[in-house]
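Rotation project, supervised by the postdoc (A.L.). Task for the rotation student: set up a whole-complex structure prediction and record inputs and outputs verbatim in this book. Inputs entered:
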Amino acid sequence: MTTKQQIRVTVNGTPYVREVEARLTLADFLRHELHLGGTHVGCEHGICGACTILIDGRSARSCLTLAVQADGASITTVEGLRNRETGHLHPIQQSFVDAHGLQCGFCTPGFMMTTLELLNENPSPSDDEIKEALGGNLCRCTGYQGILDSVRLAASRLRTAQDA
Amino acid sequence: MRPLMAIEIPTRPDQLPTTAPRFVGKAVKRIEDPALVSGTVEFIDNLSLPGMLHCAILRSPHPHARIVSIDTTAALSLEGVEAVLTGDDVARWCAPGITAPEGWGNYCMAVGKVRFVGEPVVAVAAASRYIAEDALELVQVEYELLPPVANPDEAMAPGAPLVFEDRGTNVIQSRSYTWGDIDRVFAEADRVVSRKFRWNRVGANPTETFGCICQWDLADNSLTCRGAYQTPRFMALGRAASLKLPANKVKVISHAQGGGFGGKGGPRGTDIAALLSRKTNGRPVKYIEDRIEYLLAGGGQSWDRYYEAALAVKADGTVTGFRVRLVDDQGAGAEGYGTISAAKPLAAFTGNYRIEAAFYDMTLVATNRAPTYPYRGYGPPPHNLVLESLMDIAARELAVDPAELRRRNYIRPEQFPYTVPSGNEYDSGNYAAVHDRVLEMADYQALRKAQAKARAEGRLVGIGVVSTVEPGVFDWNAYATVGVPGVGVPEGVKVAVDILGNVTVAVGFNLQGQGQFTVAAQVVADYLGVDMNSVRVATASTDVAMPHFGQGGSRLGVAVSGAILGACDKLRQTFSRVVAHLMHAEPEQVELIDGRLQLKHAPEHGMSVAEVAGVMLARSDLLPPGVEPCPEATYVWTAPNRNLPDDQGRCRSYLTAANATHVVQVEIDRDTGQVTIPAYFIVDDCGTRLNPASVEGQLQGGVAQGVGAALYEEYVYDAQCQPLVSTFVDYLVPTIHEVPMTTKDHLVTPSPVAPLGAKGCGEGAIHTTPAALLCAINDALSPLGREILETPASPHRLWKVLHGPCA
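Outputs recorded:
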């Protein structure tokens, strides 16, 4: 169990080389080794979706992924959303703020990462498509209505930005 | 000496010292959110301290067993393990937790025997959580199994095994309340409708579980606890008692929480981490509860209830009496204040109705299920389900429309303030207007027509129309007759203006999701005439914070507003003295308006709040005698005009009474028992809406939890008291697919007695939604002559009702 393996990952554009135990989850690696605490862990069984990140553009549960499985991958976490140059929030983040898409905010990074994947693939999702995409993320506070509004708003803003 | 001036708390937004409120009453963006969406908020598991160890807990696999022996030798010798904690340490160092009623508490870990699956038995502190969990696998525990007490019937049977031998009984508490001439109204009733109901255990399940980092200072013999604490001062007092420390030697630092909904705070986990720190010479010890631990034994399991209830009804539909017998399965003891939630319905026992007499008999029983804790609503959700279901049944028997039956019985607007038979006083409201508005919005007649058409097609479509009162701004006096004597719930703040006019509000609680930091900033910004982004809201640790309670009891938005308004009024009075002195006037001649203290008769002469603060901090030579160089004020608010209860529990308890009517349409799939919710309408009245967007969020979130409780969520135990639910695969929190997107509107009847006229609004929807859904389901079933009186009305349970023998 103490055997360590070397992994190379790119997280939010920054390359890392680290020695990790084979059993270390990707969530723990991101949170406690790279100190990217925005990826939250709610159930550790892949149900709640709070720990959702993008691995090579695809959403994944970082609680069910081992760090060694991410060797060679490019990972995006919530910390990668904000524009580093300007400090501005990503349109998805800003939409969650503007449309009251969060309360406690613990599940929110997972929802936003799922939304990022959805809108990358489908810039004009219907409500049913939004619900289908977000069906694997649990929120205990909002009752989802503000989240649905946030995703609609984000989609519209991203489309406008693309048209501009 | 100057006489103390009275502190005035505005009960309307237009009484704020501003031309027009810029923030109060507006759906302003929340100040909490930019950090939350950036992932930079310091939830407790994001914090590490130097030298920190990690705790893992071995939990009992048995519901009831004597501990014969524990062997931790192998665990202790594992590399990276620093300490092991067992019941022997706990018996030496601790007291059992404080409970209500007293004497039904456990130690933080099992001492001698285990009383429920999931009870801590051994804990390890190690260099990482991974190693700590490895070590647990090396611990050997030998148990001698005892017969489990699986449910209240078993618990109260003669010769039943005892959960707490020293108590001599499994009945924690049993008492009844009689309000009015209950026997007469039932004798004189034209019709009595009665049923038995079963509400199965549900729970809070915030997405963040409990976590803490505890550090024992061995030199000072004091303790610091950082963590996800909902009621920090309460937690500090409890830990001082259980860990045998003076209360001022326990400091609780509350971190932002990923939801709470009651029971957030982990007293057992805190004590265990604290003792491990003590055993490791004061190294900080982190304990993060995982989801399995939460589901087995965490805070927030609630309302494991068996009801027998009856309504007395006249032929014209007037409801005259309501009789309820409750048996509540509290699980293994009374440690989590789940017990007293049986008394919360006293604050609104007869709901929205002019019911003249009522009777309540409650029996709280200990079993070998996990102990119960508060969950959002704290008792009324099952109680309202019982009352509202009986209203529907009465309507069916009288062949009156269920909405119409309710309307006939509502308390009338001119009757406020209205004292209900169980003693509480409702401050204000207009129930018929709310009712009419939602029926209009839902086009109720069209819904009924569509239902008739669907029924003709053989479909099972139902409509629920349910009204509830939400007691807001909890007070301890509501619980005095069940073991928590006291009147008043202090909530304190400090408002500080700096030399540049920025304002800091120090509060005793931290973020949990409801948006109270935003409300605090809205109120202080409008009062002092500054921008919201000039306001910072900060959490004070318990050693320096003013008396406070924090989130709980649909109270904090109102309470923190009251505290801020009080502190701001003190500032206004002090600032007026400074300005009067500088301008050779009397303080009474100075007014505060839009952030400026000016002479009433010559408003061109005045100073900004920042200028006054600057003078106070930097020019003591200019201050009037007796004024401190301190542009800061504290104020501790508690609800006005509360009183002690009489022997039947009657008192003015909760300050405000919000109300709502929900209209919901459901359809049941005959083949699967699955319920869908095609339409859901809400009209509520919680007085002044301090932040309308946050109010809507509270409503919609409460609907979601109500959907869960009514249709999906259940802590299932088998006949041997083994929990069958231990992950989110089994405990079904509703997803975006199950929760209806509701259509909402509201009326505003400001509270005449609460700060800014706002009423507590955090729990109303979970008070209403389960009842509305069950009423709608039974409406759908009624043509079949079948009914379901048990929650959750899950697909398998409904399928059995549909396809089983007729009752």
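Student's summary: Chain A touches chain B through 56 residues (CB under 8 Å).
Supervisor addendum: The first strand of chain A starts at residue 4 and ends at 11.
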